[in-house]
Amino acid sequence: MKIFATAVLSIFLLIFVVLVSAADKPYAGQQARGVKALSDQETADYLEGHGMGLSKVAELNHYPGPRHVLDQADDLELSAEQLAKAEAIWEGMDSKARALGTMIVTKENVLERMYSTGAATPADTRTLVDEIARLQADLRYTHLAAHLSMRSVLSTNQVAKYDELRGYSDSPAPAAEHRPTQRLHL
After folding, report:
1. I need a surface site. Which of 22, 58, 80, 115 has the fewest CB within 10 A?
2. Is residue 183 part of a domain?
3. How far apart are CA 70 and CA 61, in angstroms?
4. Alpha-carbon distance 167 to 59, whole Å?
């Protein structure tokens, strides 16, 4: 029993030492990234136009996202007109988000090269950081604007049903009052 307890204690101490060592080196292993400021997942998300939580404020405040509306089209009982509008909103947002994401990754690559070659200057850094920040703001706005547009397409009951389907509601959606012409006013 004493040997077992000693072995278990030794294992816990080893794990503790490894965790403490890792905490002192938060960027260890990231030096091999192509763009050190972005993980592979972040790079892929930007290039694919993903939301990455940029529109969470809309999503969690009853402004449905077009991709999720399309995914739940049957459950939301979208009319043909609503479906067409949701597809148009999605396609416009997706196209713009992919373009902006590509520009962000490109600018991050420029920033990376500037630092990796030793050519970074305060002025160039400020310019690039400002450009990246503007692109990130444009990307966030693109996603938020799509949520704004999407909400204006759905009825109050469809928004409530959407919230329920996405797990944002404590209670089921109101009884099916399907009036696609009833719009929420912003």
Report:
1. 80
2. no
3. 19
4. 11
